[in-house]
Amino acid sequence: MAWIDISAVAVALAIVCAWLVVVLLLRARRSQRRFEILGRVAAVSESADSLENTFEAICDILVPEVADFCMIDVIEEGEPKRVAARVAAGGSDAAEQRLKDRRPSLPEWMVSGEDGSLEPRFYERMTESDLREIAHDEEGDLEFLRGLEMRSAITLALQARGQVKGTLTLGVAWSGRRYKQEDVRFAWILSGRVALTLDNSGLFSDLEQAEAARAEIAKRCSAA
After folding, report:
1. Beta-carbon neighbour count of residue 128 at 10 Å?
2. Could you tell me whether strands 69-76 and 163-172 are parallel, antiparallel, or unpaired per DSSP bridges?
3. Residue 120 has what DSSP assignment?
4. Distance between CA 220 and CA 224 in Å, rounded?
5. Nearest CA-CA partner of 54 in 218, 210, 193
6. Tell me, what CATH number does 152's domain have?
7. Residues 61, 37: contact at Cβ < 8 Å?
8. What count of other Cβ atoms lies within 10 Å of the Cβ of residue 187?
9. Cα–Cα distance between 197 and 44 in angstroms, integer?
10. Range of 170's domain?
11. Residue 116: is it exposed, middle or buried by C-beta count within 10 angstroms (0-12/13-18/19+)?
12. CA distances from 29 to 25, 33, 35, 94, 152 (A)
């Protein structure tokens, strides 16, 4: 009977080894895809001919590979402004347009640049309470967010030249995926690459110039 026990153990070990090989292969493939995504985002500033096309190209890379929908916002004079949104197949064209037109609901600490402004906002399991927290009202906007059937969402600051200049929001819903902590870590790296790409495209320097011009006008008006 001993040889039967040994055979059973050998079979069990073979199964475990095969499972570990599959897990390692899947992780290696996922890591490779993520490096490719970072590389594609970095190359956008060299190929896009306008800021609008830069925003669109970044969203096209991230959806549906990383998210079912994503939004990019910039912060002008302390106010967030949506500049791009993309929804993957499975969502509706109406949802994409609604996200484009929707006023961003961002963490105040990101918009104001308070201490901890680079801390991601992460909803691992989106709840009704979470939806109410980010909704602008108890009727239309809340119903719209419910209709998206979000499972998870991550919002990250886009920092350039020591300041938060915008945000990137990633969400998953109808694909059945759910973000975990390892996805937040990748998203944090991704946000740095997106911020660098937008800076290289001239977005953040344009914002700084506009802010400086407005400050100069305000100064002259107050002195008049």
Report:
1. 10
2. antiparallel
3. P
4. 6
5. 193
6. 3.30.450.40
7. yes
8. 23
9. 7
10. 5-223
11. exposed
12. 6, 6, 10, 34, 23
Q: Which two tokens stand for residue 169?
A: 């929001």
CA distances (Å), 13 to each of 2, 99, 148, in order? 17, 50, 44
Task: Measure CA of the first residue to CA of the last residue in the chain; give whole Å.
Answer: 101
What whole-number distance in Å separates Cα of residue 2 and Cα of residue 19? Answer: 26
What is the DSSP annotation of 145-160?
HHHHT--EEEEEEEEE
105: burial class by Cβ within 10 Å (0-12, 13-18, 19+)?
Answer: middle
What tokens does 31 get?
A: 């890591």
Number of domains in the chain: 1
Q: What is the pLDDT along the chain (224 residues), one digit of tens a residue?
A: 555 566 766 666 666 665 555 444 445 567 778 889 999 998 987 777 788 889 999 999 999 999 999 999 999 888 999 999 999 999 888 999 999 999 999 998 898 877 777 899 999 999 999 999 999 998 899 999 999 999 999 999 999 878 888 999 999 999 999 999 999 999 999 999 999 888 888 776 654 454 444 444 444 455 55
**DSSP per position, 40-107:** HHHHHHHH-SSHHHHHHHHHHHHTTTT-SEEEEEEEETTEEEEEEEEE-BTB-HHHHHHHHHSPP---
Q: Which pTM was predicted?
A: 0.80
